[in-house]
Design brief:
Layout: H1 4-19, H2 25-41, H3 46-60, H4 63-66, H5 71-86, E1 102-107, H6 114-127, E2 132-137, H7 142-155, E3 159-160, H8 167-181, E4 185-190, H9 198-211, E5 215-221, H10 226-239, E6 243-247, H11 256-265, E7 269-273, E8 281-283, H12 286-293, H13 299-309, H14 312-323, H15 329-341, H16 345-350, H17 365-376, H18 380-384, H19 391-401, H20 405-426, H21 428-434
Parallel strand pairs: 1-4, 1-5, 2-3, 2-4, 5-6, 6-7
Antiparallel strand pairs: 7-8
Helix pairs in contact: 1-2, 1-5, 2-3, 3-5, 5-12, 6-7, 8-9, 10-11, 15-17, 17-19, 19-20, 20-21
Bound molecules: guanosine-5'-diphosphate.
Residues 108, 110-116, 192, 247-248, 250-251, 273-276, 280 line the site of guanosine-5'-diphosphate (GDP).
């Protein structure tokens, strides 16, 4: 899971700091040395680390901290604030052209996740009421055009292509098409190479000069650490980026790229990619990312995710059913599917405070899939009224879902218990009990 090692180490340092009543300058020095090591081990750029530690140290040895009643907390607050600054301070949204179409030029090395990100952005802006069009300017790999078409289709966004034509000419034609069809956003997928080379840069510049993009965004792979940061520096020098998109933040990335790229290039991170699905995209909130890196959880992103995926009307219906004891296995299945649409359980856990501690805890997603299969092997009648599921029905369901009869029994028992528990909590007495009243 992303930033796990770094979060662990920083939490250790913080624990020591808060464990002491008073802090001396020497204590802070020791702590800062540990923070420095943790950042370097997470592959954060050396100069960035040096500057960061200097800035935190200066603030941390100030009178207000040392004389505070909770000096450890004060130091943590300073680290948090400085890290948020390092990540860009505040949200940097995508600029929308006052005179449409908004043109987003996407650059990046091969494999960084550029084509996937074009699809993600297309879907993201489509949901926001825009009418984006993806433009295939990666003309060297026929597979790239095909891949863009696939993600476009998945995202429900049109894709414009002209095979191997020169990218700037493709852009000119795409612009005409967009004007004709009323597309107010063009997302240009360009060619990536394994390494930066002159020809690629020259072509990118030619396209940029033609398109005068509203945003020139570099897609970098967070897993590649300082290599990604070096690429960002080089691209920025050649084509003047307006922002960076960090992908694969869901992976086992150490944090080096995320924490260095803003400081090294001076350009904000605008989005992060957090998985392979087209919905796995998040705006980059420096404060929330800091919370994640410091192991303080990211409750806000989790709540947003839940809001995006949950249907309020359905939630109310569900509540009614719980109260009146009418919950059935279809509802159970639906709940489970909604949970799944929020992403993997591992990802959800990672966003909870201290969630990185839960990383080793295996969430049995296989078990969830099994439960789903069992319910899907039931008839509608059985799902609505589990009471009718007798011995022979249990056998049939077990066979249909490839599990044992015991598995079916276990699920039915669990469901009954859950129903009882929910009824207790949602009933009048339950409400009082939750408020701590004994009657
Ligand atoms: P491109 O060569 O830059 O266009 O990269 P692609 O879009 O083809 O992506 C390369 C690989 O990375 C593909 O297998 C993608 O599924 C995967 N990928 C892209 N973004 C993410 C992400 O945010 N998380 C993860 N885990 N994989 C990603």
């Amino acid at each position: 899971m992303a930033f796990e090692g770094l979060a662990d180490k920083l939490q250790n340092v913080f624990r020591k700091l808060t464990g002491k009543g008073k802090l001396s300058e020497a204590d802070i020095k020791v702590a800062m040395r540990e923070v420095k090591l943790a950042l370097l081990e997470a592959d954060v750029n050396f100069l960035v680390v040096k500057k960061f530690i200097k800035s935190v140290s200066e603030k941390a040895v100030g009178q207000t901290v040392l004389e505070s009643l909770t000096p450890g907390q004060e130091v943590i607050r300073i680290v948090r604030d400085e890290m948020t600054q390092l990540l860009g301070g505040s949200l940097s949204d995508i600029k929308i052209a006052s005179n449409p179409p908004t043109v987003i030029l996407m650059a990046g090395l091969q494999g960084a996740g550029k084509t996937t990100m074009c699809g993600k952005l297309g879907k993201y802006f489509l949901k926001k009421g825009k009418t984006p069009m993806l433009v295939a300017c990666d003309i060297y790999r026929p597979a790239a055009i095909q891949q863009l078409k696939v993600v476009g289709e998945q995202a429900g966004v049109p894709v414009f292509e002209m095979g191997q034509e020169k990218p700037y000419k493709i852009y000119q034609a795409a612009l005409k098409e967009a004007r004709k069809n009323g597309n107010d956003m063009l997302i240009l997928d360009t060619a990536g190479r394994l390494h930066i080379d002159e020809e690629m840069m020259a072509e990118l510049k030619r396209l940029r000069d033609e398109a005068q993009p509203t945003e020139t965004l570099l897609v970098i792979d967070a897993m590649t650490g300082q290599d990604a940061v070096n690429a960002a520096k080089a691209f920025n020098e050649e084509v003047e980026l307006t922002g960076v998109i960090l992908t694969k933040v869901d992976g086992d990335t150490r944090g080096g790229a995320a924490l260095s790229v803003r400081e090294v290039t001076g350009k904000p991170i605008k989005f992060v990619g957090v998985g392979e699905k087209l919905t796995d995209i998040e705006l980059f909130h420096p404060d929330r990312m800091t919370s994640r890196i410091l192991g303080m959880g990211d409750m806000l992103s989790l709540i947003e995710k839940a809001e995006k995926n949950f249907d309020e009307k359905k939630a109310l219906e569900m509540q009614q059913k719980m109260r009146s004891d009418q919950l059935n296995l279809n509802d159970f299945l639906e709940q489970m599917q909604q949970m799944k649409s929020m992403g993997s359980m591992q990802d959800i856990l990672a966003m909870l405070p201290g969630g990185n501690k839960l990383a080793g805890m295996s969430v049995d997603e296989k078990q969830m899939a099994r439960t789903e299969a069992i319910i899907q092997s039931m008839t509608m009648k059985e799902r609505e009224n589990p009471g009718i599921i007798n011995g022979s029905r249990r056998k049939r369901i077990a066979k249909g879902s490839g599990v044992s009869v015991q598995d079916v029994n276990r699920l039915l028992n669990q469901f009954e218990q859950m129903k009882k528990m929910l009824k207790q909590f949602t009933g009048k007495r339950g409400k009082r009990r939750m408020m701590g009243l004994p009657f």
